[in-house]
Write a structure and sequence with these properties.
By secondary structure, the chain is α/β, with parallel strands linked by helices. The protein is built from 11 helices and 10 strands.
Length: 258
């Protein structure tokens, strides 16, 4: 992969968008590499992912405007679908994904972060959906996910005005969970990912599935989804191990994802 790196530390995978000269902007090649990185995740061994950008200036500064500027209507729609398909894959990826936002997260970068389960950022982070100032709409899920994550009114304000917000405001409106210094960001992301990875993998995955699918339906349907995924955990090694450790007052647990 030319523009994305993937490494594993223990049970945590780290995907890094690595196109620093373009502030990690997304073009077709970057999207292809991101998809390939997801293909390379060993779901038997890796229990959580961190997604970040190379350098300290930018997570992802947006989609590549140079590439987009000459697109036809059909090509624009196809490019939007390409990004949406990959971002939706991240959103529904079996294991939790943490966005460690280090700097600019504009347009496609903000949309990429929103496809992750959890967002934390550095104190120099800047979020925004500037597309209407370029004559287009957000095309990688921004009009849909932003209004689901923060209030509808605030989402509309951000999108209609194309105004960027800094880390402290992103925290205030619940776009991110926490703000760290640039030096603290990746250690904090790794600590959070390791904490997730220490828990029973089947249970964590079922929780992600239950939350994501339950939010798309009414409460009566949602609790049925939960009931099935709750039941699915029983008779697994990890359920017996977790409850056994509790009953035996034992801190050590051997979760094996089975």
């Amino acid at each position: 992969m030319e523009f994305v790196t993937y490494e594993v530390e223990g049970q945590v995978g780290i995907i890094t968008i690595n196109r620093p000269k373009a502030l990690n902007a997304l073009n077709s090649a970057v999207l292809d590499d991101l998809n390939a990185a997801l293909d390379g995740v060993d779901l038997e061994a890796v229990r959580a992912l961190i997604l970040t950008g190379s350098g300290e200036k930018s997570f992802v500064a947006g989609a590549d405007i140079g590439e987009m500027s000459a697109l036809t209507k059909a090509e624009g729609e196809a490019f939007g679908k390409k990004g949406n398909d990959i971002f939706r894959r991240i959103e529904t990826f079996p294991i939790p994904v943490i966005a460690a936002v280090n700097g600019f997260a504009l347009g496609g970068g903000c949309e990429l972060s929103m496809s992750c389960d959890i967002r934390i950022c550095s104190d120099n982070a800047v979020f925004g959906q500037p597309e209407v100032g370029l004559g287009i709409t957000p095309g990688f899920g921004g009009t849909q996910r932003l209004a689901r994550i923060i209030s509808v009114g605030m989402a509309k304000q951000m999108i209609y005005t194309a105004r960027n917000i800094k880390a402290d405001e992103a925290l205030r409106i619940d776009l991110v969970n926490a703000v760290y210094t640039q030096e603290e960001l990746m250690p904090a992301a790794k600590k959070m990912a390791a904490g997730i990875a220490a828990n029973a993998p089947i249970a964590v995955r079922n929780c992600k599935k239950a939350i994501n699918e339950g939010l798309q339906v009414d409460m009566d349907q949602a609790i049925v989804i939960e009931e099935k995924l709750f039941g699915d955990c029983f008779e697994t090694h990890d359920q017996k191990e977790g409850m056994g450790a509790f009953l035996e007052k034992r801190k050590e647990k051997n979760f094996i994802n089975k």
